Amino acid sequence: MSDVVLQTRGLSMAFGGLKVFNGLEFALQRGERHAVIGPNGAGKSTFVAVVTGLLSPTAGKVFLDGRDVTRTSARDRVKAGIVRTFQINTLFASLTPLESVLIALSQRDGVARPSLRPLKSLKPQIEEADALLHKFGLADDATALTQALPYGKQRLLEVVLAFALRPRVLLLDEPAAGLSTHQGQELFEQLATLTDGTTMLFVEHDMNIVFRYAQRVSVLAGGSVLATGTPEEIRSHDGVKGAYLGH
Ligand SMILES: Nc1ncnc2c1ncn2[C@@H]1O[C@H](COP(=O)(O)OP(=O)(O)OP(=O)(O)O)[C@@H](O)[C@H]1O
């Protein structure tokens, strides 16, 4: 029996007269790494924004574990377990990875920000932050200034900050943006091994990465899901080849 974590039914989104997608049907299975691909402007980022609640759809519904979250705010969706990575902003760039992870953990646990609490009370979170940074190979950089770290490590830290929230669904919109092909592959290798078992939906342009690291792939084109399947199925799908891969 299938175990669907995230589902959309009849999801439509338009910006004024521009229909980005129309009646989108999508299902994410628990524990899978699922890639969304499609031509430029197909609506992949818009889809992620609608699923995470940053944008409201013009029609249709989003379900998390069977619960309708279409009207749930982005903030409450994070609490419910729909978490996306964000590019490290200027605030986090001027902090150390340890400080950033502590802020993420405090937010998750609904306690005051680390700077507002006595150091002693932070011990469990410091231990957890240490363990997380260690797991992701960032222990040696824990107290370095984030903006001084190589881009690959900054991208990895973005994943750690989202992963720290214990997502039910982790969404990544081009997590390897700005990295070289090799660094991108390295990031996905780490994602695949270190977050194995985490349900993950990612948008990615590099087809080598998609076909290597996704267990299933959905193709967004012409306003709907053109096909969903294993990398092998998508690679040999005639419609997909015509609409997308062939170009
Ligand atoms: N806030 C917005 N207002 C108006 N139009 C928008 C907005 N956001 C996106 N669009 C338009 O919606 C369409 C889909 O954009 P989107 O960024 O979701 O595509 P994408 O598949 O992620 O593209 P890419 O692969 O280039 O990142 C595009 O035509 C884009 O110009």
Automatic annotation (TrEMBL):
<dbReference type="Pfam" id="PF00005">
    <property type="entry name" value="ABC_tran"/>
</dbReference>
<dbReference type="GO" id="GO:0005524">
    <property type="term" value="F:ATP binding"/>
</dbReference>
<feature type="domain" description="ABC transporter">
    <location>
        <begin position="6"/>
        <end position="247"/>
    </location>
</feature>
<protein>
    <submittedName>
        <fullName>ABC transporter ATP-binding protein</fullName>
    </submittedName>
</protein>
<keyword id="KW-0067">ATP-binding</keyword>
<dbReference type="InterPro" id="IPR051120">
    <property type="entry name" value="ABC_AA/LPS_Transport"/>
</dbReference>
<keyword id="KW-0547">Nucleotide-binding</keyword>
<dbReference type="Pfam" id="PF12399">
    <property type="entry name" value="BCA_ABC_TP_C"/>
</dbReference>
<dbReference type="GO" id="GO:0005886">
    <property type="term" value="C:plasma membrane"/>
</dbReference>
<dbReference type="InterPro" id="IPR032823">
    <property type="entry name" value="BCA_ABC_TP_C"/>
</dbReference>
<keyword id="KW-0472">Membrane</keyword>
<dbReference type="InterPro" id="IPR003593">
    <property type="entry name" value="AAA+_ATPase"/>
</dbReference>
<dbReference type="InterPro" id="IPR027417">
    <property type="entry name" value="P-loop_NTPase"/>
</dbReference>
<keyword id="KW-1003">Cell membrane</keyword>
<dbReference type="GO" id="GO:0016887">
    <property type="term" value="F:ATP hydrolysis activity"/>
</dbReference>
<keyword id="KW-0813">Transport</keyword>
<dbReference type="InterPro" id="IPR003439">
    <property type="entry name" value="ABC_transporter-like_ATP-bd"/>
</dbReference>
